[in-house]
Structures are given as C-alpha cells and as structure tokens.
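Researcher: Final request for today, and then I'll write up notes for the group meeting. The sequence and the SMILES for zinc ion follow.
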Amino acid sequence: MASSEKVKQYLACWFQLGKRLFVDNGREILCPKTVIIQDKYSPEFEACWNKVLKMEGHNCYLEGVEPTIDLLLSSAWEIASCVNCQMPIPRLDLGLQASPGCPCVDIPLWPNTDLPLPHSPINNRSHLNRIRSRLNIKH
Ligand SMILES: [Zn+2]
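Model: Predicted protein-zinc ion complex:
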C-alpha cells in the first residue's frame, strides 16, 4: 500500500515533468506550474493535492497512467521506481502487471541525464546517494 506521502511525492515529481492530473475523469485538468519552492511544496501544489484528498482520489489520475489515485492509496498498489528513469511509478503489490506503468515511455528524450531529476522536498540519503552516483563522485 502506498502512503499518501508517497503518492504526493509521485504527483510532485511528474508535475515537474509537465504531466497533468485529470480530476473527476478529466472534468478538471490540473498541472501546477510551480511545484516546489525552496524546500517546500508550493501553495499551488498543496491546493491541488488537497483537492485530490477531498475526493479521496476517486476518478483522479495522472496523464498516461492507468490506476487512479484512490487505487494507489489502496492496499493493492505501491509506489516503486522505474528501472529506466528512477521516477516513482505505480506498481501492483501482488501479481503481474501488463504495462510497464511508467509514463516516461511517452516523454521524448527522457530520461535525460543532463538534467537534474525532479525532486521532492524531502532530501533523504538514498536520493543524495543516487545523485552522487550519477555524478560519479568518488568518495
Ligand atoms: Zn520511467
């Protein structure tokens, strides 16, 4: 089961790549222009996230991604990292999944190792280690 914090990070990362969120089956389409200000989520992003929470994620989904947010918050799904681009992607907790599940398949020139990866305000150690290994910094 994906925690709401993880789902929030997942949305934040994809918004930074320009993916949009379809709310209420696309009746409303959201894509905050600014996701992170310094080390915090932007008010624009928080407002968007609150809207998702208010609807409990029902009929809300990221552009190009099948499972809706309420499914991601259910016990059947978790958030994993894409093997191609390390972005957070939905993964079925049990059983096999037909599609790779990562929206990176329809973003041209992604992953782009010349650009910094989208990030969440929580800079944990594993994230830093990943950046370090990308930069090939020797300890
Ligand atoms: Zn990917």
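Model: The longest strand covers residues 77-81. The chain is about 25% helix and 15% strand.
Researcher: Thanks, that's everything.
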